[in-house]
Amino acid sequence: MEFNKVTPEIIEQLKVIAPGRAFSGEEINEDYAHDEMRFYGQQLPDAVVEVTSAEEVSAIVKLANEKNIPIIPRGAGTGLAGGAVAKMGGIVISTVRMNHIKSYDLGNLTVTVEPGVLLNDLAQDAEKQGLLYPPDPGEKFATLGGNVSTNAGGMRAVKYGCTRDYVRAMEVVLPTGEIVTFGLKVPKTSSGYSFVQLMCGSEGTLGIITELTLKLIPKPQETVSLIIPFEDLETAISCVPHFFLNKLQPQALEFMGRDIVEMSEKYLEKENFPKVVDGVEAGAYLLVTYDGSNRDQLDEICEQTGEVVFENGALDVFVADTPDKIRDAWAARSQFLEAIQAATDELDECDVVVPRDKIAEYFNWALTLQDKYHMAIRGFGHAGDGNLHIYACKEGDMSLEEFAGKTDQIMDEMYAKAIEMGGEISGEHGIGHSKVKFLEKAAGETKMNLMRGIKQVFDPNNILNPGKVCERCD
Amino acid sequence: MEFNKVTPEIIEQLKVIAPGRAFSGEEINEDYAHDEMRFYGQQLPDAVVEVTSAEEVSAIVKLANEKNIPIIPRGAGTGLAGGAVAKMGGIVISTVRMNHIKSYDLGNLTVTVEPGVLLNDLAQDAEKQGLLYPPDPGEKFATLGGNVSTNAGGMRAVKYGCTRDYVRAMEVVLPTGEIVTFGLKVPKTSSGYSFVQLMCGSEGTLGIITELTLKLIPKPQETVSLIIPFEDLETAISCVPHFFLNKLQPQALEFMGRDIVEMSEKYLEKENFPKVVDGVEAGAYLLVTYDGSNRDQLDEICEQTGEVVFENGALDVFVADTPDKIRDAWAARSQFLEAIQAATDELDECDVVVPRDKIAEYFNWALTLQDKYHMAIRGFGHAGDGNLHIYACKEGDMSLEEFAGKTDQIMDEMYAKAIEMGGEISGEHGIGHSKVKFLEKAAGETKMNLMRGIKQVFDPNNILNPGKVCERCD
Fold first, then answer.
1. In chain B, which end has fewer C-beta atoms inside a 10 angstrom radius, N or C?
2. Any bridge partners for residue A104, and if so which?
3. A67 and chain B: CB distance < 8 Å anywhere?
4. Which residues contact B138 (CB under 8 A, 6 or more apart)?
5. What pTM value is reported for the model?
């Protein structure tokens, strides 16, 4: 892949297209060099444009297409796979200023937003309308455009599905600069191949999203959370399938080892999880949330859950049934990544998915790599949907070079094991540039070539986020 | 598009691949000439193979690819858009014998089936496990492979979404004969472009599905149905958005005019719908189902619904709260198409979708075409998701030629109006060969070319169901 340089003339043109919002050279904020995973590269783009409309995006893309310059769409930069890094130079199109919730359509239960609206802002705003936007990724300050581009999953995927299940329609700028709409407001359509679904998870390689119409649901009237301690992680995770075997439908179902809970509570300076139950040390926990239409219904579900988990090794069940208690119960969980980051100076991550009943086996196996590679490995996960986040952490005086070498082998082993167990490379963080080589191994030549073929159909000059998802940038 | 003829040698090879299950010439059952909409063509294929495995499909496809012969995958032939008609000759691959429910995975709440399993068979079998397969298309004797290929919607789409929302993984034979798997059992994945989603609704043009892994949910413990009469159709349909504005979540929400209810009840020889309420003639109805976890919850919802509908013009609310009563309430609805078919010797259909709040306006406009074209037009629809089924019916001594000419103009007007209102060509029946020209007008050149490009990536020799979805067969 050969691209042209962004010349001073092109910078001038960008400044005409987006006056006061086009930056180059030293004007570019250092944040634009990386996403949340600094380890995946430090490359400042040649230019950044903070766009405010589809028309601006169209003008920039047309120019880039004509001049053969990469375009990298970027939301809040909270990605974890290097998807928004300008690995091959070029122009970053930042959607941070396209952050308006445009309109609700309460008769159709949809909301139309600009792609730079933050998940947290939509979540809070929808709640004011008595509505819920079900996807609930851990990172609340990601943009919705970014969520759609990685098909972000989150805590509630076990009951409500992932971001793609809530995208009804979108406005997209194609690499030609043409502005098109895909999908429509209503839930049903069978009118040719689904462009909406193809765009979800395509990480900016096929088109640039400039507007989204998302599905909402009535907000469940009541919720309750349960903290359930177990003696060890294996018992905790082995209990998970019993929720489904007993037809319980948790909104969220997370597992966590005691070590990570303690790390997070120390980071938060607040303790909520019981550590000793009737003289037995708790080694792991399940954290569960249910929603429902009334308190009686939830009481009944909690009782049923008690029966199920006590039969399967739970030490106790702690009920959080007020908004404050629920917030406290989830406080530690929501700071896991931050706590891990605070305790290490560099980390690498995998977010594999495996079938629910393989989680314990997989996670225990992953922990054995600690001894093999003399490296700290920490993790937690969405037990309800088989998605694990596992981190290899650089500690002590290990050099960055040694860390990079080891973590490459660790990731290679982890992905191979996940595939062997019937899993996939990424549950919700996407492929970016950092996982392309692992996806290649997992998907194989046929599927990679189909992806590359689709990419070629949309973007024959390969200017949209080159070197990501299905193409190498090295 | 130029294809080769199926020679006697090829027939011999097919008979070796599938002994006793490969048919040609007069051995071919006349049913294979058409789908449920006979008006869309009567073309016997050159050969039919009733396959029993992915390996057989692979061998046939390889042969066809080599010899440049069309392959037309076919389930139960209940389609309504001509998708399974061998418009250009070739080999029909019938999945009728691949009708085994292979296994349930109760820990992951999934079921793995062969593509020829009938919707009805899975629905009943899942119920025995205490589980629900939420998609509920009107035609219960369609195959699941066909449902996936058209992204069939059905009655429960308003709450639970369409078939695509329940497809986790599939085994597919590509046009090269290679057997691949797409997706996996768990709900989360962000590992490149979604092939599973691309296959859903692609009507056999990209690959042939030989196995499906579908998501199930715990069966709701209680359901209740309501028949709600109104003075006229406009009042009935105008009431629909108020369900959502009031955060009610029906599982199904259908509208129907009195004329079609009477036709259907006459056909069934059984009357269930009230015709006169307190001296007022009922001109239209909403038929609603709710599900929930207990009777109290549903009683509360019924009461709320009563308040909402009485404020919006309902004449009364009739509650069906036992399995027998619910079945009776839905009996007329489930026979609409059969009743319309019985009353006419030929019909043409559109299943447009429009935003929920445009349904009344659209349907009333469609009825004005009766006078304009002197043709009977009947319809009903899924009020909850904006999907209408409207039929132009040949009556009296109208010639087939005159009917074809008129209905072409009627469909043209209907689709143009739907698009103008922000709708799409097909809600759930698909494009087949009969609606390609309307999709072309609606989607425009850019989107049609993207579809054709994707088709070309998967099927460069264009042997899979040619002349369907994005390509003309004329």
1. C
2. A111
3. no
4. B154, B155, B334, B336, B337
5. 0.95
